[in-house]
Write a structure and sequence with these properties.
homodimer, alpha/beta, Arc Repressor Mutant, subunit A, D-Maltodextrin-Binding Protein, domain 2, 3 domains, 6-stranded mixed sheet, two-stranded antiparallel sheet, 10 helices, 44% helix, 23% strand, rod-shaped, DNA-binding, transcription cis-regulatory region binding (chains A, B), DNA-binding transcription factor activity (chains A, B), LysR_HTH_N (chains A, B), DNA-binding (chains A, B)
DNA sequence: GCCCTCCATCTCATTTCGAGATGGAGGCGC
DNA sequence: GCGCCTCCATCTCGAAATGAGATGGAGGGC
């Protein structure tokens, strides 16, 4: 049994004749006749009783008519449902980012997802690069924003932006007065406050504490206990408020990279989230919250899903 | 969207790959690929995400998978239902017969219908020939047993049986002693009890009452108030019980005819009822309840519904 | 880096489908 | 009663859909 045959059958039943149904269905009467015949053969009995004045639906035909109408309605419903599902991505997107990035990316992301893709569920976690990559590989994350790429065959990367890096110190620190620093200036700092995962300072600078998140790092620096390196987006509020002073390190940059697993299907929702993140990144650059060290702002990538 | 495409889609989704599904579905992988592509085009989005290790179902694909399985189940249910309906006639059959015929035909008919076609609803009415034909024409009856055919373009007839006709009188009536009568004998009867619809007696015989049903007719005759004509099937019980005497009128016969409307579809249930009536008629002849005036017992007719 | 798997695409054969013509059955009007 | 008209069934041919095999590109595994 075929949906087409069902439609034809219903057409004939509703119009009470092959000829009338044929013109209504835009099909030749002969073709209609053959389809009904085939349907009757398959169902093992007559669906119509043929008379010289048209056809009448048999008892079994009545059953098929009622059920068939319902079935065709269902088919339309299902199609509409799938189409809606296609138009509107849905499902859960699990995103990881370091807290400093999360702070500025997550609020606008949540707002945009809610507005544009209300059926997408976001799980916004905070994780530094290593942990994020690990979770990506384990399938615990769909997408991550990481800092600095460490090559991995099972991940693919897309650079979001390269941010300018600033040295931060307590307010009105004389070393940072000039607003920018050289490599040499850096070597003569008293103490460094390092992030957990890397050591961007020259080896000459002693460090006494490592912190995971940028907020305690900034607090420590603000109280004059040491210096730290952060991109502008991580410090602009404190600098504006006079709680920190900052100097650009022109030779350094922090590369914000979008990472996603390879070899695992990427959901529409994840795709859209990726697009939104790039959009948000552009907005942040435009608003001066992210200061790029590169001219280009959003890096394009080859298409990933097409057919 | 097509049921075949849906089956293919579900096959691919269940096996997690085109190749595996292709061999399971006995179709070439290329054809499968094309069908899925067409389905995706129609539904406006990808149903699978293709990877190098097979395919994964997208969010919209999951929806289609769930709904599609259900839909295919429904299709099977509907087919089974229609097939059952075809195997087992159903609906209502409205049958009309004169009370004397009803008396002997209806009980076995009801029994056989209940046993063989439990889904058929019988409406067994009592009506004499004229009324029955009128109701057939009005569509108030599907089938009728009538006595003596009056030609009508909108009815078609099928002779069930030609019954011997007996003259009945009170018990031990001397006129009926011989067991059979001649036309001349008939002319010298005192009084006749006539049926409502016709006058089978010669004009010489005076009549004083007309009755619709055979039961009062027999009662009147049994009390010696007159003579009447009835087929054997209508009197055998009273004759056996000695309440009536009867003499055969060899030159007469009562033709029991099955009448159905032309130009109106005949339901399977009606068809089966017709067949059963002929079967019952044969049984009654075999059991000696109906005595035929013809050698042939069940008259065949051309097929009425075929394709 | 090579091979192997898996899907997409191309091309051609087969099947299915649709259109028009023709014919038979039966109702309707003259 | 007779021809006409309507309606469905069937036949045949062209068109479209479907299926099969071959080939190629992408990507993972060794």
């Amino acid at each position: 049994m075929d949906l087409r045959q069902l439609r034809y059958f219903i057409g004939v039943a509703e119009r009470g004749g092959f000829g009338a149904a044929a013109s209504a269905l835009n099909i030749a009467q002969s073709a209609l006749s053959r389809h009904i015949k085939e349907l009757e053969r398959e169902l093992g009995g007559a669906l119509f009783t043929r008379t010289a004045r048209g056809v009448a639906v048999t008892e079994s035909g009545k059953v098929l008519l009622e059920r068939g109408r319902w079935l065709l309605g269902l088919v339309d419903d299902i199609k509409a449902e799938v189409r809606t599902e296609n138009r509107e991505p849905s499902g859960t997107v699990r995103l990881g980012a370091p807290s400093s990035v999360a702070e500025i990316f997550y609020p606008p992301l949540a707002r945009l997802i809610a507005a544009r893709f209300p059926r997408v569920q976001l799980e916004l976690g905070e994780a530094l690069t290593e942990l994020a990559c690990d979770r990506l590989l384990r399938g615990q994350l769909d997408l991550a924003i990481v800092t600095g790429p460490q090559p991995n065959d099972h991940l693919c990367y897309e650079t979001l932006v390269e941010e300018q890096v600033f040295l931060i110190g307590p307010p009105d620190d004389p070393k940072l007065k000039r607003g920018r620093m050289t490599v040499n200036d850096l070597k003569h700092l008293s103490r460094a406050v390092l992030p957990l995962s890397r050591t961007p300072f020259p080896p000459e600078v002693p460090s006494f504490v490592r912190v995971e998140s940028s907020t305690p790092m900034k607090r420590i620096v603000a109280s004059g206990l040491g210096y730290a390196l952060l991109p502008y987006s991580g410090i602009y509020q404190e600098v504006d408020a006079g709680q920190l002073s900052a100097a650009l390190l022109p030779w350094m940059s922090a590369e914000r990279v979008l990472a996603l697993p390879r070899g695992r299907p990427i959901s529409r929702a994840t795709q859209e989230t990726r697009t939104l993140l790039k959009e948000i990144c552009g907005d942040l650059i435009r608003d001066g919250i992210i200061r790029t060290s590169q001219r280009k702002r959003v890096i394009r990538q080859q298409r990933t899903s097409a057919h």
